Amino acid sequence: MTTMFSEFTLRNLRFTRGKLSKLARREANWGLLFLSPWIIGFFLWKFLPMIASLVFSFTSFNLLHREDVQWAGLENYIRFFGDPLAGVAIKVSLTFALISLPIGIIQPILMAALLNQKSLRWKRIFTTLFYMPKIVPMVSVVYIWQGVLNARTGWVNIALESIGIPGPDWINTVAWIYPALVLIGLWGVGDMMLYTLATMQGIPTELYEAARVDGAGAFATFWHITIPMITPIIFYNLVLSSIGILMYFLVPYVLKGPNGDPGNATWFYGMYLYKEAFAYSDMGMGATMAWILFLFAIVVTIILFSTQKYWVFYAAEEV
Amino acid sequence: MAIRTDRSTTLLSNRMRVFLFSASLTLFALIIISTYLSPFGYMTVTAIKDRSMIADPNAPILPSKEATFNYEGQELAVYLVPTEDGKVHEWAILKKGREESTFIDPTNLEAGPTEWTGRWRTLERVWSVSPVWENFSEAWKGLNMPRLLRNTLVIAITGSIGTLISCIAVAYGFSRFRIPGKNILFMALISTIILPEFVTIVPTYVVFERIGWIGTWLPLIIPHFFANAYNVFLLRQFFMTIPKELDEAAMIDGASPMRILFSVILPQSIPAIVAVGMFHFMWSWNDFFQPLLYLSTERELQPISIGIQLYNARYFAQPHMIQASSLLGLLVPIIIFFLAQRIFMQGIVFTGVEK
Amino acid sequence: MKKILTVLFSLLVIAAMLLAACKPPAPAAPEAAAPAEEAAPVEEAAPAEEAAPPEKVTIRWFVGLGTGANPEHIPGQEEVVARFNETHDNIELVVEFVENSIAPDQLKTQIAAGDPPDIIGPVGWSGTNEFSGLFLDLEPYLGAFDWGDFDADSINAYRLEGEGLLGLPFAVFPSMIYYNRDLFDEAGLAYPPQNYGDPYADGDPWTVEKLEELALALTVDANGNDANSPDFDPKNIVQFGYHSQWTDPRGQAAALFGADNFIDDEGNAVLSERWRSAFNWYYEGMHVKHFMPNTTYQESDLLAAGNPFDSGNVAIVHCHLWYTCCLGNVPNWDMAVVPSYNDAGDVTVKLHADTFRIFASTENPEEAVEVLLYLTGEAAGDLLQIYGGMPGRISLQEEFFATMDERFPQGVNWDVAVQGLAYPDVPNHESNLPNYAKAYDRIGAFQTLYESTPDLDINAELDNLVADLQVIFDEAK
Question: What ipTM was estimated for this complex?
Answer without folding.
Answer: 0.86
